[in-house]
Amino acid sequence: MSPFAVLPVRTPTLPPATHTNVYRLGDCVIDPASPEPREQERVLAWAGKVGRILLTHHHADHIGGVEALAAATGAPVWAHADARVPFPVHHRIHDGDLIDTGAGTLVALHTPGHADGHLAYQLVNTGHIIAGDLVAGEGTIVLLQPEGDLQRYLDSLARVRALADTLWPAHGPPQPASLADAYIAHRHHRTAQFLNVLRAGEPDRTLMADQIAAMVYSGLPGVNLQLAAMQVHTHLLWLAERGQARSVGEAWAAA
């Protein structure tokens, strides 16, 4: 049985997702996400009495309905100190803060890597974690510069994996905590692929991130090569920090 009430709402998110999950526990609503008036009306009718609006992070497909819900209910907005939103934040959340919802206590977990100020929320004394965009029930998570950071993301995945039994993602159905292991393995697999492409051919070979993306992701159904190239860039920065790749102007080479 779910400890949370969940309402998927239509948002301008990245495919294959079409909706973002809004969560409710006690008087707290987490990520009222949709900018669409009809969806905002659904959230208001579903939410009941709202004491606080909590955010996982500041990306547009998570905050589109915050102002509407706050205006309709008078509820204050709570977000991490590093969250950047175009509306007032009444309380800044820090790692380890306890939030009494009236139906259970949440502990805030600062879990950056996908976004600055990203928070997950664990229901205290359980393995249930609202994971935001750490994982997805459909597709994968994109790490885009300037805030996408592969090492911080891997660390955040490892942190929730150690605490969770069930991960409640922002997009799609709940997932076993073992999905975090699969995500970590997937990131390392992609990193190895990108490095192997750089190491192939002539010793002084240089490639642009979009060239690497085309070579690795070509043929995958529904792939967005522009987003893939941005993802490649995040991995290349991780490799450069470890002395395995180097930038050559706007191109990259194996170190």
Question: Could you describe the 3D structure shown?
Answer:
There is one protein chain. The protein has a six-stranded mixed β-sheet with strand order 1-2-3-4-5-6, with helices on one face. The N and C termini lie far apart (51 Å). The model has no long low-confidence stretch (mean pLDDT 96). The chain is elongated, with a radius of gyration of 19 Å. The protein has seven helices and 14 strands. It has two domains: 172 residues, Ribonuclease Z/Hydroxyacylglutathione hydrolase-like (Metallo-beta-lactamase, Chain A), CATH 3.60.15.10; 72 residues, Arc Repressor Mutant, subunit A, CATH 1.10.10.10. It has 255 residues and is α/β, with parallel strands linked by helices. 33% of the residues lie in helices and 23% in strands.
Please give the structural blueprint:
Layout (H helix, E strand, L loop, with lengths): L4 E6 L8 E7 L2 E3 L6 H11 L4 E3 L5 H4 L2 H8 L3 E4 L10 E3 L4 E3 L4 E6 L8 E5 L4 E5 L17 H14 L2 E4 L5 E2 L1 H22 L9 H9 L7 H17 L3 E4 L2 E4 L1
Parallel strand pairs: 3-4, 4-5, 5-6, 10-11
Antiparallel strand pairs: 1-2, 2-3, 7-8, 8-9, 9-10, 11-12, 13-14
Compact overview of the structure:
This protein is an alpha/beta fold and 255 residues long.
Tags for this entry?
255 residues; alpha/beta; Metallo-beta-lactamase, Chain A; Arc Repressor Mutant, subunit A; six-stranded mixed β-sheet; 7 helices; 14 strands; 33% helix; elongated
Count the helices. How many?
7
Widest sheet: strand order? 1-2-3-4-5-6
In CATH, the homologous superfamily of the largest domain goes by the name Ribonuclease Z/Hydroxyacylglutathione hydrolase-like
Q: Distance between the terminal alpha carbons, to the nearest Å?
A: 51 Å
What's the CATH architecture of the largest domain? 4-Layer Sandwich
CATH topology of the largest domain: Metallo-beta-lactamase, Chain A
Order of helices and strands: EEEHEHHEEEEEEHEEHHHEE
